[in-house]
Design brief:
Blueprint: H1 4-30, E1 41-47, E2 50-55, E3 67-70, H2 88-94, E4 99-103, H3 116-135, E5 140-145, H4 147-158, E6 163-169, H5 181-187, H6 191-198, E7 200-201, H7 203-213, H8 215-228, H9 233-246, E8 252-253, H10 254-266, E9 276-277, E10 280-281, E11 291-296, H11 304-307, H12 310-313, E12 319-324, H13 330-333, H14 335-339, H15 341-351, E13 378-379, E14 384-385
Parallel strand pairs: 3-4, 3-5, 5-6, 6-11, 11-12
Antiparallel strand pairs: 1-2, 1-13, 1-14, 2-4, 7-8, 9-10
Helix pairs in contact: 3-4, 3-10, 5-10, 6-10
Amino acid sequence: MFNPASMQKAVEERLQMNKKLLQGVNSLLSIEEVDVGLTPKELVYEEDKVKLYHYKPLVKKVSPVPTLIVYALVNRQYMMDLQQNRSVVRGWLEQGLDVYIVDWGYPDKMDKYITMEDYIDGYINNAVDTVRRLSGQDKINLLGVCQGGTFCTIYAALYPEKIKNLVTMVAPIDFHVDDGLLNIWSRYLNVDTMVDTYGVIPGDFMNVGFLMLKPFQLMLDKYMGLLNNIDNPEVVQDFVRMEKWIFDSPGQAGEAFRKFIKDLYQDNKLIKNELELGGRTVNLKKITMPVLNVFAEQDHLVPPSSSKPLNKAVGSKDTDVISFPGGHIGIYVSSKSQKEVAPAVSKWLHDRSEPEKKSKPAEKTKPAGEKPAASPGAKASKDTRDTKGTAESKDTKSEKAESKDTK
């Protein structure tokens, strides 16, 4: 039976939806470019395509021991400083940490022979030495994110004399867990054929693989979420900013990628203390400095079971964990993380960052051409660009709109 009231309601809903879509289209068309990584920082060292930045302090009292952030190779480090109101880096600066960060750049076909030794013994070691020199500290804090956390763990085992505290965030350590598809797929990956064919593995190729891990959520659900809020300009801006980061994926240097997949994902050598780097065996028991292990409970890329074994594998007597009820990316950008995880990491570092001894003051400037040891391509630059205790959270409800799992 024809119902005029129902028909009127349907027409009004359709008109309202059309109005909402029109507002959303206008918001999208008005966005020329989204800004990311806005927290002020200074370029203090560069080598090849790698840059080291020092963030400018935001408070008067700053921790005497600086913290160096090492991000993964597969994504861009500005996820840590994606936007002003959800910036882990800015939060740490406001809490008094002295923060440096590595920008890996974009490898091209000239970089296909770069190895894991080049990344860890070369670039990371030179970045650590630069921070030590600039800060006047013999030991610094090292904070690694995802694959960067794996690299930092390896580095801390090889150079324990340079590291005051080690923090890993959503970092894979035991690669033979069965909780995540990435771990399982990688065991059967014909990485030799891939590297021999591509030289540098394309970022788009990596992106397709990551999207296939959670196809509904990453390729459909998030767009439905946008549609429900498309008339909100702030939501649209945040969505575009996140999409920019997701698809801003550098290529992977072939030889480093080959070793990472074969020795870690396929042979699981790190947790077994069998990994060799530059002729040395990486023994996790040599990590005797304090260790903080941060993981996300709903992480589909690096499940908690892959990160947790670190605490028992190291030789340190001071180990701690922070368990976050969210996903791989929510641990940085959700408001819950900003309120809980970032301050907990900061407090943990502050509690353990008393300098061991006074070193000579760092030089204010560096003569042109001066380079750290074994860094033939390095150069200095003054260019300006832009808790003790476990801090586990029992809140298992993720903030749906804020802790979107991406990659």
